[in-house]
Amino acid sequence: MNIDGQAWRTIGLEEGGRSVWVIDQTQLPHRFTTRSISSADEAAEAIATMVVRGAPLIGVTGAYGLMLALQADPSDACLGAAFDQLNATRPTAVNLRWALERVRAKVAPLPLEQRAEAAQAEAGAIADEDVAMCEAIGDHGLAIFQELAAARPTERQGQPFNVLTHCNAGWLATVDWGTALAPIYKAHRAGLNIHVWVDETRPRNQGASLTAYELGREGVPHTVIVDNAGGHLMQHGQVDAVIVGTDRTTRTGDVCNKIGTYLKALAAHDNGVPFYVALPASTIDWSIADGVAGIPIEARSALEVTHLQGRAPDGAITTVQLTPDGSPGFNPAFDVTPARLVTALITERGVAPATEEGLKALYAEPLAAQ
Ligand code: MRU
């Protein structure tokens, strides 16, 4: 994607593969900086503190973290310890476990001296595939947006096609393109008059800081709204479609995504607004049928609720306290939207109803790289 005229991915190798650079998302939107990661410990820390975030990018960072661990020590003991350390950093997004398992399966049968190089190749393949999958999601989602836009009543044809999104499921959450934002980028480039309502996404404000940043860099018209505004906008016909990403989707089509997604799905359902979820295959957890009962929900620090980070007038990035001294906070980071509220799943293989049959039909053929 495009930052000041330069094409960027979110992660890449440096120093001949001895370290990895990532965009430091904790500094956005106020500072665009990269950070080097040169050990599994540093990779784990970057994931846990949300220097990198978003289900697909967490997975790729984890894969490179295993590579760094094996460069230091290719033994089985180190492989196992690094796997566990990285896997424990964020429990909800299943892409992390998926990517770690994929690298481990590739390197475990190999002689020790070949492991680090094989891990590098596998992590690179996961990253490249993520880009291709996200672009394909963009193409499938574009077709849906074009159909919905064309089906609007004649008097609304000249108006912007309004899409609401929650959290950040853009290129910053993946290696490039994004999941939910990929169809938006494709639509904008195809000349559709698209406008995006960006949920701020409390408590960490991935919408206000990251989605708004991305859309701005790509020149996509957008407006940041408070999380509570979505239902009102839908009641007044100002949302043509909702599209979000997901951190884990069950085989039955239940969708676990950033806290607040469920409320948007309820409001969309009540107002007849289509609610789409965009995801690559790496986000499907085929082992779980009931998302509410089966998906672990990450509980993050209460400080993310009681405090807020932003830019002070002097340019310094600063944190302020919102709540009275002594008021506790509680911070579940994700919620589950039941499949019945999802209009369709948009994957790299096409569009499916959010049902077990729908997903199985799309993924009847095994994934090429698995
Ligand atoms: O806690 P985060 O910022 O990692 O959560 C990210 C989201 O919830 C995204 O919507 C999700 O990962 C899908 S992204 C492609």
Describe the structure.
- The protein is α/β, with parallel strands linked by helices and 370 residues long.
- It folds into 2 domains: 2-128, Four Helix Bundle (Hemerythrin (Met), subunit A), CATH 1.20.120.420; 152-369, Rossmann fold (3-Layer(aba) Sandwich), CATH 3.40.50.
- It is built from 12 helices and 18 strands.
- The protein has helices at 40-48, 55-72, 76-87, 94-107, 112-150, 181-189, 206-217, 230-235, 261-271, 291-294, 303-306, 356-362; strands spanning 2-3, 6-7, 11-14, 19-23, 34-37, 161-165, 194-199, 222-225, 241-244, 248-250, 255-258, 275-278, 284-285, 307-311, 317-321, 334-337, 344-347, 350-352.
- The strands form 5 sheets. It has a 7-stranded mixed sheet, with helices on both faces.
- Strand 7 (194-199), helix 7 and strand 8 form a beta-alpha-beta unit.
- Helix 2 (55-72) runs antiparallel to helix 3, helix 2 (55-72) packs parallel to helix 4 (94-107) and helix 3 packs antiparallel against helix 4.
- 48% of the residues are buried.
- The mean pLDDT is 96.
- The protein binds 5-S-methyl-1-O-phosphono-5-thio-D-ribulose.
- The site of 5-S-methyl-1-O-phosphono-5-thio-D-ribulose (MRU) has 17 residues, from helix 2 and strand 11.
